[in-house]
Amino acid sequence: EELDEFNRRIVGRIEVVRSFPEVACPGKSVRRMKAIQGDITRLQVDAIVNAANTSLLGGGGVDGAIHRAAGPELVEECRKFRGCKTGEARLTQGYRLPARWVIHTPGPVWNGGGLHEREKLASCYRNSLRLAMDQGAGSIAFPCISTGVYRYPPDLAAQVAVETCRDFLEETGADLAVTFCCFSKADLELYQKLL
Ligand code: ADP
């Protein structure tokens, strides 16, 4: 009888808990995201993302800056991957960078938008976030992937970046602070408007 009474109370409690309405927290994930203007190689975050090419062996733009700042050990570690497909991501150590890890992701080349560029760019953000989360990172910084020599329109790219990161944070509940590190003031303004 005592057990029955105990169970009834527990069940009662469970029902009470269940009857609470879902508490929506609009904007919670947005508060985990911020945009700054600066050089990504200087950031003290757990992981910085490199807008790499599919060879993963270094290039120009932000890729060149990251390899220069990290030192020659970075390209040595990258060799083990034997390249990486567009939209996928690979993690290495940060070597001489203040960041502990570098996540390398080749963005899509813009060809007018009809060749799945949007999905591929979203994959870059999602796969980078997933790697960071699995690694236990608490903070990650992204450059404006594909908006340099790969010619993705910066306003469209910023939309993909913010939406994909917001959805990821909401869906996974990841405890991850996201910084969009813009090189130009124009990019910073795009992100500020969206955030
Ligand atoms: P992609 O080949 O993906 O287009 P780029 O390196 O050409 O890559 O350009 C991507 C973005 O990175 C551009 O917005 C560019 O201005 C920016 N960028 C270049 N150097 C840095 C840096 N040191 N820190 C942050 N962003 C940078």
UniProtKB/TrEMBL annotation:
Section covered of the full-length record: 93 to 287 of 287
Domain of life: Bacteria
The protein's name in its UniProt record: O-acetyl-ADP-ribose deacetylase (Regulator of RNase III)
Segments traversing the membrane: none
Source organism: Haloferula luteola
Domain Macro per the UniProt entry, residue ranges: 20-195
